[in-house]
């Protein structure tokens, strides 16, 4: 009886039938019956085969004599424990498939120069004798092990440097790269080796092994794993290590994780020729599943005699015993699985999608499923851009999970052996917002970028420059003319403030992300700013307001095609967690879409309660948005909320709001036109561009600051912040008015703190000083002066928080008082007043034009205050004064 799973993404299956025992007599060249055990799934998954020096150790089992010369019958193999096997490698062939012996002459093709750099001596070279290879391949186990071991011992950096075309080879090129790496693995107790496939390609003796690695990864990678263990054992014995250290290495599971293939294939270009080969792809992670328990060994118990037996899982297939193996019992169908005694490993399914830059015009992005195992679980998260090296798999689709019949249609997926975070042109992520702990394994690249001493010295040298602020500002979107304050605000947004969580009083998390809104006339480079920031920001997502929905920004529920379960798909804001979300045409968003941004911009979370899924997702992202005014032209007589049709509650959550207006100025227009013309004349040398920082170095500088600098406020800076806040509040004092204007709130104070911390980060300083606070205050006042000034030329923050300033409130109050006075006069002549008569009479008495909407608002306000009574609808309404 055979139990199978319904999804290939959980347990890859094979069309091969289970191995059958053969009672026939063994011929001279046949495989011994001991090798035909059904619980051995591959001839490559053998136990340790050390060199001669370990022959005295009784714990070592040999798969074949290490000094075998010629075609010799393999010695007996003990069962390889399933716990000692990799989860990401599923050999195609069962051990019951006989190994072929082919006759061939292996001639050496190395030149005299290659013989000088390597003493590689393949097995059976020029002997004309039979060579043992894996069935269906040209892979010789012993030859591959010897080749790879020689590579580990002899490969030097200079071979790779010469392969990459580097002319000046320094003394570091003589270092034995992998010898030092293996020593470091032993010292740090690491078991994963990061193998660059290009190193195999540039080393002539391993060119064949490099080809075999890509063509037969299921066979070559386990050989490499075994070779690593043998090399570690040889290294310990040469160093006269004790029995405890040797036993520790013998019990370790060493894994080689190849990466760096010479060719990266697009997801849409994968075809049947790539099946069962080592392939490299890259894309954007859009969904990560929960950790799935992947059964490695099943535990069965007899219900009659309680006899127990363990069965190893072979590519998702459980060979369930149909009869109790105990001769005294031998009960049929009495074996039941005991789950809590079975062994499981970690597994996870990742949905990888093509990045927008590689999707052809007019087509939708393709996606593929990735299966990750063991140490790679929880390494990638939604929004990451990764480069994956793995084995491309295909399995048939079942018509019904309960039937053995399968379709001719095959599903494809990846068994991942290596994951690498890519796109170093983007800035790094603030480590304070990373949820998962950074792995110390050298086999995978972490999300935090590593900098060499030379790079650090170059960064610190720039930080010591007296005109650092000016240089970085000019390097932000250099194609855009002037707008220095806008560039400075965006520059500080890229650095960001410090995220803080205080334990006292269970205070909430204080965000360090800075939100900026660009609004103004069309064709003023607003979208160009967004495109530039999207290109440089980590995990950034660019979206348009008209093409975005509420679920597209947050998350939506969908049914997974493989598990048939409801899953949560991340939207733009969740994918931008730790980066910057750029939203163009912000004013054209629907009200339901904009409503989800209130929680994101302040609490930096998204609460979901859909289809039985109740959760809170992190959206620790900065928002950079652009909005056009109503009618495509900004009206200076109206407030910002009235110009761009944004609710005041949302507008107040932006730290900086910049008005970018198209003003007619001949001298300024001439300079702008000359700047644009020079952009199209690439052969002209512009002296101003010589001081710009290269794009890659700018990203490195910002990444270094975000990862290593977490500034704190000094006493001097704290006093200056308090002083600046009080001074901004005093701007609203007016001795002639009974009501004071609000010119600053605590949100402006928090914004100044974030800007001050970002300015200190830019200087690579761990302390916020007076200079940082002064620049933050200047930027804040400059922005407020533009977007929070009423028609009288005075700052009034109520324009942002309520949509109307003190001038509008006074006018509405005067309108209600005059209207109430008129109602009293007209009520003396009759019991009720018609709407038409009231509006006509009021317009005749007023010295200014009366807006009908404002008139109706005043009437509703008087009704709410129980000053008047309204009967009827529309123009037929009548009014009565309530005495």
UniProtKB/TrEMBL annotation:
Family: Belongs to the MCM family.
Cross-referenced PROSITE patterns: MCM_1, MCM_2
Protein name as catalogued: DNA replication licensing factor MCM4
Subcellular location: Nucleus
GO cellular component terms attached to this protein's record: CMG complex; cytoplasm; MCM complex; MCM core complex; nuclear pre-replicative complex; nuclear replication fork; rDNA protrusion
Keyword DNA-binding: yes
GO function terms (MF aspect): 3'-5' DNA/RNA helicase activity; ATP binding; ATP hydrolysis activity; chromatin binding; DNA replication origin binding; four-way junction helicase activity; single-stranded 3'-5' DNA helicase activity; single-stranded DNA binding
